[in-house]
Structures are given as structure tokens and as C-alpha cells.
Amino acid sequence: MYVTRTFELPPSASSSVREELQFLPPSKLTVESVSKTFKTRTGPVQALDKVSLQVGEGEFVCLVGASGCGKSTLLNIIAGLEKPDSGTVTADGLRVLEPGRERLVMFQESALFPWLDVLGNVLFGLKMKPHLSNKDRKQVARYYLELVGLTRFERSNIHELSGGMKQRVALARALAPNPRMLLMDEPFAALDALTREQLYGDLQQIWESRRKTIIFVTHNVREAACLGDRVLLFSPHPGRIREEFLIKLPRQRDINSTALAEYASRIMASLKGFKENNGEVAE
Ligand SMILES: Nc1ncnc2c1ncn2[C@@H]1O[C@H](COP(=O)(O)OP(=O)(O)O)[C@@H](O)[C@H]1O
Ligand SMILES: [Mg+2]
């Protein structure tokens, strides 16, 4: 395990740093009847058709489905990066109309800045915090680097890091502004199985220790069963939520456990059913 939970702030930490690191209540989300159609050169593509869902405070929800069924579109709409044609997204009672630092997104490609070192990348996430001095910012950034297990690498260049380490930096950068909701779009899809396994454990620990609401998109059913309290299944063309599974397994969950494999095979069977009904070809 990379992650340590023993991190303590130095006694010299200012009250602004302590305040910045306080636990904020995780977000509650309501998506109501969201539809979205893209105009393409070959005609309109309906990415989402009247999608509704509710996510409770501190819940870990996974969205699963084949490529092209609208998962990223929904996540981007929840993030406020994209607008729905109709329907609404409400976070903690307020309509989501634009991106905000309450809800941050982490993508498959880490989108780190190669000209900044590891610490610089995490500090970037804190640049919108004018009440913090430079010293305070560094202390906050180091808290999150410790949380993702990268303290020793704070001065490393991005190109010197493995894929898994880059995603850890991206996670620290997304966590640093202390969002109440984390939106993750296939963040581990490009990593090897062993690295992913380590990150599943660490992400569950971080989620438990920092209490965030997480919406996690994946096409990997085992990953979804390992991470989610709830797994929502999408069917494509147009993207719709078709089924939901409650994963009643204790945490920390082991991706290789038999109980988890059973959930994964039930989820997979449902997904295959949607594809056959739609005449789709499996990935
Ligand atoms: N910006 C866009 N312009 C045109 N079509 C798009 C755009 N974004 C997504 N789509 C289309 O919408 C559908 C859903 O895409 P997406 O949300 O990326 O699916 P997923 O994340 O599940 O793979 C796909 O058919 C995709 O080609
Ligand atoms: Mg996608």
C-alpha cells in the first residue's frame, strides 16, 4: 500500500491551513431527465435520453457501460463542463450551470502540466485560494501528496513518473481544492492490472478518510463492483440507465475475491443482454 493515514500537520501549521483541510460535507446530487444530442457530420447522435439519478452524500457510485453509451457526456454535464439539451442537474440544492471547485473531474489521461514538477502540479489546484500564503499552499499540497503516497517524489518531473504515479498526482491535484464531489472518468483504464489493484485499495482508503461523494465512470465491471456502493448500468444509442446493482460487500474490498467476481459476472450478463437487444457488437 502506498497510502498512509498517519499524516499529521506540523505544529506550526497556520489556522488557514487547518481550515483549508477541514472536512466539508460531501455533496448530494440530483440529475433529472437529462437529454443530450450531438450534431455530427453524419447526423445527430443522441448521447443521453432522459437520464435521471440521485446520489447521496458521501456515496460512491459507478457508471458502467460500453464505449459510446454516454457516460462521459453525463459526467461532463454533472461537472458543468457541458450543457444538457433538456433536464437539470442539482448539487446540494443548487442548479449546476458551470464548473465549480465543489465538483472536480479526473480524466483517464492525467492532463498534468509537464513543465511543473509534482508539487507544482498539486499547487496548481490551489491557485484559486487567495487567502492562503505560499507557505500555507505548500503545506496543503504536501498533505495531499502524503495522502496519495508521493511525498518522496515532490520534486520529480512528470515525465519521470510511471502511469500509476501520474494518476496519483492527478488525484492529489483534484483533491487539493477540497471538492465535495469527485468525478472520475476511467482514471485507471490505461494502467496495468497490478498498479490498478493498488490504486483500488488506496482510493477506497482516501474516500473513507476524506469522505467525498464520488461518481466513477468505467467500462470495467470488476472495477465497478470493487469500488461502488452502487453500480448503474448504461445501455447505448441512446444512452440510458437501465439497471442498478447495490454492492453489499464490506470494505476494503479485494478485486480478486469470489464474492466480488459473482457481482461482476451478474453485471456483465446484464450488459451483454442490452447489447444483444440493441444489435450491438460487444467490445
Ligand atoms: N463532442 C461531441 N461531438 C459529437 N459527438 C459526441 C461528442 N461527445 C460525445 N459524442 C458522441 O456521443 C456518444 C456518447 O459519447 P460518450 O459520452 O463519450 O460515451 P462513453 O463515455 O460512454 O464512451 C458517442 O456516440 C459519441 O460519439
Ligand atoms: Mg467516455
Could you outline the blueprint of secondary structure elements for this entry?
Blueprint: H1 15-20, E1 29-40, E2 43-55, E3 60-64, H2 71-79, E4 86-91, E5 94-95, E6 103-106, H3 118-124, H4 134-147, H5 163-175, E7 181-185, H6 193-210, E8 213-218, H7 221-227, E9 230-235, E10 240-246, H8 258-278
Parallel strand pairs: 3-8, 3-9, 6-7, 7-8
Antiparallel strand pairs: 1-2, 1-4, 4-5, 9-10
Helix pairs in contact: 3-5, 4-5, 7-8
Bound molecules: adenosine-5'-diphosphate and magnesium ion (MG).
Residues 71-72, 185 line the site of magnesium ion.
Provide the number of structural domains.
2
Under the CATH scheme, which architecture of the largest domain would be assigned? 3-Layer(aba) Sandwich
Number of helices: 8
Give Rg in angstroms.
Answer: 19 Å
The CATH topology of the largest domain: Rossmann fold
Looking at this structure, what is the CATH superfamily of the largest domain?
P-loop containing nucleotide triphosphate hydrolases
Largest sheet, in brief, is: 6 strands, mixed
CATH class of the largest domain: Alpha Beta
Could you characterize the architecture of this molecule?
By secondary structure, the protein is of the alpha/beta class. The protein has two domains: 25-102 and 180-278, P-loop containing nucleotide triphosphate hydrolases (Rossmann fold, 3-Layer(aba) Sandwich); 114-178, no CATH class. It is 34% helix and 23% strand. It has eight helices and ten strands. The chain has helices at residues 15-20, 71-79, 118-124, 134-147, 163-175, 193-210, 221-227, 258-278, and strands spanning 29-40, 43-55, 60-64, 86-91, 94-95, 103-106, 181-185, 213-218, 230-235, 240-246. The longest helix has 21 residues, at 258-278. The protein is globular. It starts with 14 loop residues before the first helix and ends in a 5-residue tail after the last helix. Adenosine-5'-diphosphate is lined by residues 38, 40, 45, 47, 65, 67-73.
